[in-house]
Write a structure and sequence with these properties.
With about 300 residues, the protein is an alpha+beta fold. Helix content is about 35%, strand content about 20%. It has a six-stranded antiparallel sheet with strand order 1-5-8-7-6-4. It has a two-stranded antiparallel ribbon with strand order 2-3. Helix 5 (about 230-255) crosses helix 6. The relative contact order is 0.08.
């Protein structure tokens, strides 16, 4: 049975994010990728991955090297086996993803989900995500297939605490008392009863600081307009002097002052415009008549 699906992240982080800033002025602290050999900043596109062996040998791999690996070409999620759901230790669970049917006829999707729900089994699957081979548990949640990536066995650390060595076993009376306490606090699991009080109180602190305008709030100031460059100022001044000089020469040629020349030009300009209007009216009428004759 082949089931085509789309994968979506099933969880999200609700923690409030902070930026590192300079305590003196609130300026944002930025990080630069600098090469330790040439001392230059390196763009993310120019960064490759390197492996260094315990002996100190370094191997640099590019994106082309990773693309040649067989896992990079797999777009399937083969089922390895079906196991009882209670046999998977929760410590192995990692990320969760929702699987949406990617087919015009999602009957196979519904059939698989219904079967897993009825037999109370979890499918162990093998797939590739972000160029890594992963083991995952596929189960049903509210009628939707959920994929939960699993840690590999060697990724779960073995632990031994010396502080537990030689500790005597609890007495039966102590166990009975503990069981009574557990029984009084037992109930069905309802995640909606629990809230992240730290994040709620932190949000209140931030909202109150913004509303009150305390010294903790760094106001967003618009950047001041850039001053004109010295060369640009010199160029404008030179153009202004050139225009003034050309005005003086024009006045000398006409035998009058520059102001008188401007007044004379102002007086003549309306007369010229009026003459132009008078001349244009007959031309427009002639054009209309000509068009009428042609149409006739």
């Amino acid at each position: 049975m082949v089931v085509t699906v789309k994968v979506y992240t099933a969880t999200e982080d609700h923690d409030i994010r902070f930026h590192q800033v300079h305590a003196a002025d609130g300026g944002r602290i930025k990080y630069d990728r600098v090469c330790t050999i040439c001392g230059k900043s390196v763009q993310y596109a120019d960064i490759d991955k390197a492996y260094e062996s315990p002996e100190g040998d370094k191997v640099v791999l590019t994106d082309d090297d990773f693309s040649k690996l067989p896992v990079a070409e797999k777009h399937e999620i083969p089922v390895l086996q079906f196991v009882p759901s209670d046999q998977i230790d929760p410590i192995f669970f990692d990320k969760s993803y929702y699987l949406e049917p990617d087919s015009t006829t999602p009957k196979a999707y519904v059939l698989l989900a219904t079967t897993l729900d009825r037999i109370d089994r979890t499918a162990l699957v093998h797939f590739t995500l972000r160029q890594k081979t992963r083991l995952a548990a596929m189960r049903v949640r509210d009628g939707v297939l959920v994929l939960q990536t699993l840690l590999w066995p060697d990724e779960v650390r073995a632990v031994e605490f010396e502080s537990l060595d030689g500790v005597s076993e609890p007495r039966s009376q102590e166990i009975d008392m503990a069981e009574t306490l557990v029984a009084t606090m037992s109930d069905d699991f309802d995640p909606t009863l629990f809230k992240d009080e730290y994040q709620i109180e932190l949000k209140k602190v931030l909202d109150e600081a913004i509303a009150s305008g305390t010294g903790k709030v760094v106001s967003h100031e618009e950047a001041a307009p850039a001053e004109m460059d010295a060369e640009v100022v010199d160029l404008v001044a030179a153009l202004q002097r050139s225009l003034e000089a050309s005005g003086r020469r024009g006045a000398g040629d006409s035998g009058g002052s520059g102001t008188q020349a401007k007044k004379t030009a102002a007086k003549k300009a309306p007369a010229k415009k009026a003459a132009a209007k008078k001349a244009s009216k007959p031309a427009a009428k002639t054009a209309k008549k000509t068009a009428a004759r042609k149409g006739a």
